[in-house]
Specification:
Helix content is 58%, strand content 17%. It is built from three helices and two strands, in the order αβααβ. The longest helix has 22 residues. It is elongated. It has one domain.
Length: 90
Amino acid sequence: MPSVPKAEEMIRSEGYSLIGSFRLPDTGWWNHYYTPLTGRLGMLKEKYSNNQDARCIIQGLEMEMDIHRKYANEYGYTYFIMKKRSSGYF
């Protein structure tokens, strides 16, 4: 996963003009994904207690939340708004 400056460099090297960018705020992750998911994990653990694959998925989700809790400042999702530069053909 490249850094934002590296991604911007890649965008420009591929013939795009960078119009702008924004990073999804951490509150979006917690308010709309992790908090509702946390509320369901207990039920899912009970429902799938005899399903090894489901338990592994649940454990992975718990690890993901823990990593995000500890390192949210180290990574995230950034959206880039770009425009293809004119090729001279149109």
